[in-house]
Every structure is written in C-alpha cells, then in structure tokens.
Design brief:
Layout (H helix, E strand, L loop, with lengths): L1 E4 L9 H12 L6 E2 L7 H13 L6 E5 L1 H13 L2 E5 L5 H4 L5 E4 L6 E4 L1 H8 L12 E6 L7 H7 L4 E5 L13 H9 L5
Parallel strand pairs: 1-2, 1-3, 3-4, 4-7, 7-8
Antiparallel strand pairs: 5-6
Length: 191
C-alpha cells in the first residue's frame, strides 16, 4: 500500500500523483494506492492522511512531495511507517512566512489565505531528528529552485539518498524513479 501526499497548493491531480497512479494501474495495483486531497490547514491535512492510512489493509508506505514530504516525515515518525521523500520541505514553517496572505491552488483554483496559524501548526509538526533512517528513501534534485536540497540530505543522514544533479522542484523525470519507489515500498511486503 502507498499513500501519496502532494505538496503546497497542489492536489491529487498533480503530475507526480498521476504518474504514480498510471504506473500502479499498469501493474494492476490501483487498489493499493491512496491519494488524499490535503486541506491547506496542516492540522486538517494530518487528520486526512491519518484517515487514509487507517483505511489501508496493511501499513502503507508514505510518498510525499515537498510539503507532503514534511507531513510524511511527521507521520512516519508518529506511526512507525516507511516514507519516500521527493524534494521534501524540511522546515516549511521557516520558508512560508514570506508567502503569508492570499494563495491559489495551482490545480483546483481554490483561493485561500495563508496565515500565521498555518505556520504555527506546521512548526508543531517538526521532527528534529528521525529515529530510524532505514525507514526513509530520499529522492532530491540539486536544481530545486524552491527548497535547498542540502537540508534534506542533512536531515535524512543515514537514510538511502538519491541525489540527482540538476532538475527542479517538480522533480524532473519523476516517472523514471517510480520503480525504485515501488521496490522500496515492497521491501517488507507488497506495495
């Protein structure tokens, strides 16, 4: 089982979510994937992810992109799950204050207001140190124009890390890495 977590102002319609859906459908594993729509409020997003995890027949692997990677880290630690992190946000509560104010979801067009309450909730989800690096796979690109890839490498020291020169925040050529993601998810059972 896999639960895919999209990033900030994204949705289950993102290119990475669709690519993962297609790859799993090609393996006839579409029933082993959950892609919840995450609310912009962090506390609500965590409840939505917990519900998606709870609906899985077995413990899933979390696959999180950007802010979804931050959520995946928190839940991997609190629920003892495995996580694949794709250009993860490491300290979004330090990055997002510069974006306070009106927001627009890139996929749904939904407009909403990013407030200090959102930032405070994100800070409350911080995991200072991961407890079991073997539960993590980090996929990061050095050309990420939004996040500093080196922060992810430092945060997930000891975890398996795939650091790709170049690329971008959207993680160029994501589909190429799906077999690696599925292999990691299946390492202790079926995806």
């Amino acid at each position: 089982m896999i639960v895919y977590l999209h990033g900030f102002n994204s949705s289950p319609s993102s290119a990475k979510a669709r690519a993962l859906e297609e790859a799993m459908a090609a393996r006839r594993w579409q029933d082993r994937l959950r892609v919840p729509k995450l609310p912009h409020r962090p506390s609500c997003a965590i409840r939505e992810i917990e519900a998606a995890v709870g609906a899985c027949a077995q413990a899933p692997t979390l696959v999180g992109s950007s802010l979804g990677g931050y959520y995946a880290t928190y839940l991997a630690e609190t629920m003892g799950l495995k996580a694949v992190l794709i250009n993860p946000a490491v300290r979004p509560f330090a990055l997002l204050p510069g974006l306070l104010g009106p927001q627009r979801n890139l996929y749904t067009g939904e407009e909403w207001m990013l407030t200090q309450a959102h930032i405070d909730e994100l800070a409350g989800l911080d995991v200072p140190v991961i407890t079991d690096p073997a539960r993590y796979l980090l996929l990061t690109q050095t050309g990420d124009e939004v996040l500093d890839y080196a922060q992810g490498c430092e945060k997930f020291a000891g975890a398996r890390q795939i650091v790709i020169p170049g690329g971008n925040h959207g993680f160029a050529e994501f589909s190429r890495y799906i077999p690696m993601i599925l292999a990691f998810a299946c390492a202790s059972g079926e995806a």
